[in-house]
């Protein structure tokens, strides 16, 4: 099975102080979808810094590719 997830965030979500783990310290949750330690941020979001607002990207096997935007059935123009 393959799942395509469209995300626009380019940085982590930091939790409030009550969520901080006593052993691990600061916890940041990945919102970009690229972390190897998902759901925790591992800094991989830095790869998104130069993304263009009007492009759609696929990250696969360490490479980034620009793709045509996926059009869902409800966005498809009527024929
Ligand atoms: S937000 Fe995804 S790796 Fe940091």
Automatic annotation (TrEMBL):
It holds the Pfam family zf-CDGSH. Residues 1-22 are annotated as: Disordered. This is Zn-finger domain of CDGSH type-containing protein. The keyword RNA-binding does not apply. Residues 10-51 form the Iron-binding zinc finger CDGSH type domain. Keywords: 2Fe-2S, Iron, Iron-sulfur, Metal-binding. The lineage of its organism: Archaea, Methanobacteriati, Methanobacteriota, Stenosarchaea group, Halobacteria. GO terms for molecular function: 2 iron, 2 sulfur cluster binding; metal ion binding. GO terms for cellular component: cytoplasm. It comes from Natronobacterium texcoconense.
């Amino acid at each position: 099975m393959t799942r395509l997830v469209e995300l626009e965030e380019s940085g982590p979500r930091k939790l409030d102080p009550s969520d901080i783990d006593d052993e691990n310290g600061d916890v940041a949750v990945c919102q970009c979808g690229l972390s190897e330690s998902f759901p925790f941020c591992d800094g991989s979001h830095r790869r998104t810094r130069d993304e263009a607002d009007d492009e759609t990207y696929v990250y696969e096997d360490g490479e980034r590719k620009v793709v045509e935007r996926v059009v869902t059935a409800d966005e498809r123009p009527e024929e």
